[in-house]
Recover the amino acids of this structure.
């Protein structure tokens, strides 16, 4: 029997769903043995210490994405992050920190990351462009809007953000 187009689509969707579930399980509490838990305030990223309240960071080179967040924990994949420009690395962390503050709200987490970066002096227009380039081909997933849409919203947040305070 010929497999109809609709059936093929269903198969693809089912396998994609399975991959998502596997990813979610990987993001769960069971840490791989080579993972390292870094206490709040001890994380150094792109040459600077960066923190998110009391939230510790799990460094996992097997995590499926660049970063992730569960309640009370930030997960980073240092191998994947190493491919990215420094401002994007810090932006990924700040985005996951945004989830600790605002929960599952993706657009809010994006805006938080951009505004925090600008305030703290590690994010400027060049960084904004690097983040947009990073997201350009991301189609979005079950929670994140497509990359270009996220970029547009973040550019607006960036425009509203305050530049770093002059050093005294
Ligand atoms: Zn997110």
């Amino acid at each position: 029997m010929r497999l109809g187009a609709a059936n093929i689509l269903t198969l693809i969707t089912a396998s994609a769903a399975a991959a998502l579930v596997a990813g979610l399980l990987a993001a769960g509490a069971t840490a791989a043995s080579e993972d390292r838990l870094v206490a709040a305030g001890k994380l150094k990223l792109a040459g600077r210490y960066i923190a998110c309240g009391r939230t510790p960071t799990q460094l996992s080179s097997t995590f499926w994405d660049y970063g992730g967040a569960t309640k009370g924990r930030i997960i980073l994949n240092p191998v994947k992050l190493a491919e990215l420009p420094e401002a994007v690395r810090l932006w990924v962390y700040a985005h996951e920190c945004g989830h600790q503050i605002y929960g599952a709200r993706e657009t809010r987490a994006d805006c938080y990351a951009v505004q925090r970066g600008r305030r703290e002096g590690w994010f400027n227009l060049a960084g904004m462009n690097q983040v947009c380039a990073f997201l350009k081909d991301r189609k979005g997933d079950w929670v994140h809007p497509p990359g270009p849409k996220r970029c547009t919203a973040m550019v607006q947040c960036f425009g509203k953000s305050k530049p770093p305070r002059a050093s005294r």
Summary: The chain is about 50% helix and 10% strand. The two ends are 76 Å apart (CA to CA). Residues 31-160 form one domain. Residues 1-29 have pLDDT under 50 and may be disordered.
